[in-house]
């Protein structure tokens, strides 16, 4: 039976099982090495020789480390600066370096003692009589030392893994420092509509939605509680038209459509960069130990976990559609009216796997596709370069597109696109094969093409004095040629 220290995150389970089989020749043990759900070691029996080979083999594979230790060692100042720009503690970098040194020292000590134990075993085998009895006593002491060194190595490795999961992605050069309000405006596109010049005061999206019979917040609250709603009638048609328009754009640019699960295992959520233990935004089904996703990015990131991808024909691109769930736990009293901040919404999300060198260019392309959607819908918007402290754990850089909302006289986020570099791929063990050079982690990126919140900007910006809404021309083919959403 493998010791508890070898309980690893389940994305690594298939790889470990293959190594178990290769080292021990025990197919049953390989199949039973980890349970499929909670990833605990089961009670497979091992002969000491097989166990020793498996332990040695598994120990040589650094499955648990989720950061690039070599890169951290080569440029620790860059990681310290990244932490400072995020408003996080740069001392974590030094703690990680110290933990890595402790791990290597402990492992070296174990390997030295283990080699000594093996050599001593041969000496005992050749001895006889009283000499052998004396040596056997020494063997017992040496075995205890080996066991202690083994435990110390496991403990050092566990501490390194724990600290590694606390370190956010290294921010990209040029990302502004600071928090939510420290973004940099990259550009502003379009001119907000002058309703005063047209002689009427704009209604907010909820009032318009109620006039059109498109949004019912009151019954949503009756059925499910606050921040839930019903879309109905032209509200449903409008959202579906928006999603189909986004899907057509995705198809034109080589994306594969995917409808994703909305419940995922904790290791998938963690692998994507979400802290399931402390993130108050995440819904958890405790009985099943499953999590409701806040974006299809989570399921799409886990789709290729523990796989080696073929990127010889270029990036792999998915357009994932799903319902999304967020507690909005930190948003008390903010945007409580309407459908800007709700617990459930639908979203079409781009997700890309690509070579590391292609990630920045792909990021620019994804931002361009988001802007193409906004411009086609006749929305005024701005693009912001999100500050490091507002990036989240997995993103190295994030651009948001914020549309103008007339009744709030403010820009509000409709899309975001993030370059996560190799951060998620390392956690989920997703690699590409390099010709003659082994494998390496891929880069992952994500970006929004359409979501329920877009209805806010469309309804408010294209409303008419009587409460009806002019359908943007680009959406009309998806609504059977409908030009105006009429008041009921």
Protein architecture, described:
The chain has 488 residues and is α+β, with helices and mostly antiparallel strands. 42% of the residues lie in helices and 18% in strands. It is built from 16 helices and 18 strands. The strands form 5 sheets. The protein has an 8-stranded mixed beta sheet. Helix 6 runs antiparallel to helix 7 (129-164). The longest helix is centred in the N-terminal third of the chain and has 36 residues, at 91-126. 39% of the residues are buried.
Q: If helices are DSSP runs of H or I spanning 4 or more residues, what is the number of helices?
A: 16
What helical percentage do the residues reach?
40-55%
Largest sheet: 8 strands, mixed
Question: What's the arrangement of strands in the largest beta sheet?
Answer: 1-11-12-13-16-10-9-4
Report the sheet-strand fraction. Answer: 15-25%
User: Distance N terminus to C terminus?
Assistant: 69 Å
What's the overall geometry?
Answer: elongated
Nearest-integer average pLDDT: 87
Uncertain residue segments: 1-64
Radius of gyration based on Cα positions:
28 Å
Total count of strands: 18
- Broad structural category: alpha+beta
Summarize the helices and strands and which ones pair or pack.
Layout: H1 13-24, H2 27-32, H3 48-60, H4 69-74, H5 76-86, H6 91-126, H7 129-164, E1 184-189, H8 195-198, H9 205-211, E2 215-216, H10 217-224, E3 230-231, H11 234-252, E4 256-259, E5 263-264, H12 266-272, E6 283-285, E7 290-292, H13 297-302, E8 308-309, E9 316-325, E10 344-354, H14 359-376, E11 381-385, E12 397-405, E13 410-419, H15 423-428, E14 431-434, E15 438-441, E16 443-451, H16 454-461, E17 469-470, E18 484-485
Parallel strand pairs: 4-9, 8-14
Antiparallel strand pairs: 1-11, 2-3, 5-7, 6-7, 9-10, 10-16, 11-12, 12-13, 13-16, 14-15, 17-18
Helix pairs in contact: 1-3, 5-6, 6-7, 9-16
